[in-house]
Amino acid sequence: MFNLFPNQDDIKLFVPTIHRNMSGITLAPSVNTAVQTYLLPYLGSAFIAQIEGWIATGTHSDITTAVRDAAAWFAVHLAIPQHRIVLADMGTQQQNDNNGVSSPANEEQVKMALWQALRLGYDKLEYLLWEVLLPQKASPDLAFWVGFAGHRIVCDRVLWSPDIFQQYQPLRTPGAMEPWLDLRAVMLDVEDLYLRNVLCDEQLLELRTEICGNSLSNTNELLLPYVQRYVAAKTVMIANNKNHTRHTGRGAKVTGISDPMNPSGDLAYDSGEMNYQAVKNIADIAEFRLWEFLRANADDYPLWRDSHCSGLVADVPSGPNDEHGCGCGCSRCCGESRSSGKSLLAI
Questions:
Q1: Domain locations in the chain?
Q2: How would you class 334 by CB atoms within 10 Å of its CB: exposed for 0-12, middle for 13-18, buried for 19 or more?
Q3: What are the pLDDT digits (tens) for 113-158?
């Protein structure tokens, strides 16, 4: 069991809707599950144990407060549906109070509280990761966190946070971190399969390294907005179709919204198509602007200029069966296709 609330009633300091007479012990299982599900993947067990020590000694209050705030709201989200019923010898029993002054919340109120708690939890987690921990990344006190692979969530994409992503494409708010997490796999595809065809390996690696090291050069700081606008639009364009399905043991299933507990709805087909075309136009123009910027400033980006992606380097055959240096063996001129500014891969 995790021990973020050694005084069980401390959880009420973070969630004002918990009844003053409710024992914090009742929420302990939900807190434990919340930490396992929502915090552990990004903090790691060693760092959480360190945080528990800080809570016991009353130190590092900025970190401990932010961690407990996120855990409390995620725990409430988990507890709301669980506490509507109890498991008894006679089976499941619905919680009700016919004789007291309280009465169960109606379905609409439950929905609102359920999803508000989840989305607030994600907002609190976003604040913890990017506003509290990331600025202190170099501190020796955060060695357990920095040594945990999951901490790289704060910097391992060119759109490294929900806030950065929303500078180019909107996300559902509150709780923008939840859809941003859903888009991370698509972002990686866009960077590795599309952006790589524009920047080539060396320039892309340099950009990624400087982002995660918080050491952007002046030239890459100028390049980054062009890259981010392109990746954001391309990500949304692909995700509009791809993220409607999930793979199961029985094949791909459509993930349309049919759960009445979820207040969101799917776009109508016409609206979805209009959205796709609008974002596609942005992605196409953003790619063109990226190529245009790189060509105009080629000498500032020698890694890109001297790579085959630039189209500025003469192709040198690498073998008797290759017609040109890229090694694909096709009859098209590599330099000609690259200078067009079009990705080699298409949706």
A1: 8-150, 162-310
A2: buried
A3: 888 999 999 999 999 999 999 999 999 999 999 999 999 999 999 9
Alpha-carbon distance of 100 to 102, in angstroms, equals 6
Backbone angles phi, psi at 60, to 5 degrees: 50, 50
Q: How far apart are CA 339 and CA 314, in angstroms?
A: 12
Peptide bond into 6 cis (omega under 30): no
If residue 243 lies in a helix (H) or strand (E), which one and from where to where? none
CA distances from 24 to 5, 9, 85, 215, 220 (A): 9, 5, 18, 44, 50
Neighbours of 291 (CB within 10 A): 21
Q: Is 272 exposed, middle or buried (0-12, 13-18, 19+ CB in 10 A)?
A: middle
The DSSP letter of residue 105 is: P
Query: Closest Cα to residue 123, out of 78, 156, 187, 74?
Result: 74
Q: Is the dihedral of CA 102, 103, 109, 113 positive or negative?
A: positive
The model carries a pTM of 0.80
